[in-house]
Amino acid sequence: MSARPDPSVILQTLYGAFFNGDGAAQAETLRAKAGLDKAAFEALVRSLEAEGLIRAGMVGPGYTMTAKGVLRTEARGLIEPELAAQTSQLRSIILDGLVSAYDESGGTAGADLEALAGRTELDLNAILPSLLLLDEVDYVEFTAAGAYRPTARGLAAVREMRLRNEFLDELDRIADLRSPDREHGLQRLLGRAIEANGWTVEQKGLELAAHKPGAAYVIECGWEGGPSLSVLEEMAGQRGAAVLFGPKDVRALLEGQATFDKLVQEKRG
Which residues contact 37 (CB under 8 A, 6 or more apart)? Predict the structure, then answer.
């Protein structure tokens, strides 16, 4: 009886090949690592191809990973967290470097590989796999001038990333302040973060008023062992019961891991 197909072995192997410069792995190597007979292996790779996670290699009887496969493999936790974090950070550095070059040119140019390597201080062998992935997910594009530049989607991702980093840096600065400056600083910071989620926010004394069509909340900011919020729904001048956001909730909001809307819904059940 053949071994039960285990796609994680194939995905892990192809993930490594994608980033170590090999690009692809031979079919027989993958089959041996997965411990499958020929029929079971062929059925498994066909299913992974159908999902868009892998594709046949350009040369020889092998396979390579797609951008979707890379991201899915990371999301499933099939890769060591340190390695996944490293490759994700590489993509961020490369994309940020391209956006900087794009901005410096007045929005007319990107950067070729040599310029990008100099700007990011990364080796070309580290840059190329990430560039291929970013191109496949439409974050960058190759120009007729032989350079890479960010797409509108890539620009938006970097703007968002920079904003989130700015929020977190400001939170660290606020943590070193004393009351009441700390609470006032937190109030301004969270007002900006909630506005970034599409709400109109007004400062009213010690409270924030957040509203958009069909919803309105009054928000009180505090610092009890870390940043916290008390959020009250306001309808026809009446306030409902408060829901509380603790330090983890506030950080999730600032990092963009959760929206204000989602946090309120989760707290209210």
Answer: 2
CA distance 145 to 193: 39
Give dist(CA 30, CA 44) in Å, integer.
11
| Helix ranges, the chain (H) | 7-19, 27-34, 38-50, 67-75, 81-104, 113-120, 124-136, 152-175, 181-195, 247-255, 260-268
Provide CB contacts within 8 A for 195, sequence distance 6+.
201
Residue 265: which residues within 8 A CB-CB, separation 6 or more? Answer: none
Q: Which of 119, 184, 193, 190 is nearest to 163 (CA)?
A: 193
Q: What is the pLDDT of residues 103-130, one digit of tens each?
A: 999 988 889 999 999 999 999 989 999 9
pTM: 0.81
Q: How far does the chain reach from its first CA to its final CA, in angstroms?
A: 48
Write phi, then psi, for 78 (nearest 5 degrees): -80, -10
Tokens of 144: 């007729």
Give tens-digit pLDDT for 230-241: 999 887 677 778
